[in-house]
Structure formats: C-alpha cells, structure tokens
C-alpha cells in the first residue's frame, strides 16, 4: 500500500495477548506523535491498529496522553507540552 511518504505505526496481532508489548506500543506511539510538539518531520501521521484491539488501544493511548502531557503556559515548570513559538 502506498501511503505517499506518510509515517504510520502499525499495532499488530502480536499485542493482543501481550500486555507488556501493548503498553510499550502505546508509549512509543504517544512519543512518536507528540515529541517536539509534532514539529518533527519523522512524527507519526497515523496509527493502524489490529481490529480486535481498537478500543483497548485507543483507551490506553488516551489515558497515557492525559496522565503524561500537561499542555499549558510553557513558562510554567509543570508544563511539559506547549507552544514552540515565543509569545512575546
């Protein structure tokens, strides 16, 4: 399948019964998409998930993003994800 140079992650059937592998995949997908605030040319454009795990993967990824990334004023110490440009 030609995806026109876009970067996709594929979460296959090997993660169905392997919770540790699935958790690693969730972590890597989160950082693959959000590292450098999405400005990296190698960031993930989409995630292809085996049909039997779509809900499980989506819920795990959503929880991971919500508990890990704190979007706010980049001048605050607790913020670890925010705008790149200088607001001044």
Offer a quick outline of the entry.
The chain has 88 residues and is α+β, with helices and mostly antiparallel strands.
Radius of gyration, Cα only, in angstroms? 15 Å
> What is the tally of beta strands?
2
Shape: globular
Give, in order, the helices and strands. EHEH
The strands making up the biggest β-sheet line up spatially as 1-2
In DSSP terms, counting alpha (H) and pi (I) runs of 4 or more, how many helices?
A: 2
Which structural category do the helix and sheet elements fall into?
A: alpha+beta
The helix fraction, in percent, is: 25-40%
Q: What is the CA-CA span between the terminal residues?
A: 45 Å
Major sheet attributes? 2 strands, parallel
User: What ranges have pLDDT less than 50 throughout 5 or more consecutive residues?
Assistant: none
In oligomeric terms, what are we looking at? single chain
The average pLDDT is 83
DSSP strand content:
5-15%
Properties at a glance:
single chain; 88 residues; alpha+beta; two-stranded parallel sheet; 2 helices; 2 strands; globular
Secondary structure topology:
Layout: E1 8-11, H1 19-34, E2 46-49, H2 54-68
Question: Can you offer a commentary on this structure?
Answer:
- Helix content is 35%, strand content 9%.
- With 88 residues, the protein is an alpha+beta fold.
- It has a domain at 8-68.
- It has a two-stranded parallel sheet.
- The model has no long low-confidence stretch (mean pLDDT 83).
């Amino acid at each position: 399948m030609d995806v026109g140079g876009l970067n996709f992650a594929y979460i296959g059937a090997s993660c169905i019964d392997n919770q540790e592998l699935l958790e690693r995949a969730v972590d890597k997908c989160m950082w693959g998409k959000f590292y450098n605030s999405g400005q990296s040319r190698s960031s993930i454009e989409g995630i292809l998930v085996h049909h039997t795990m779509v809900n499980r993967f989506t819920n795990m990824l959503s929880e991971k993003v919500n508990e890990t990334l704190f979007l706010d004023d980049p001048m605050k110490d607790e913020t670890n994800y925010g705008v790149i440009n200088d607001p001044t």
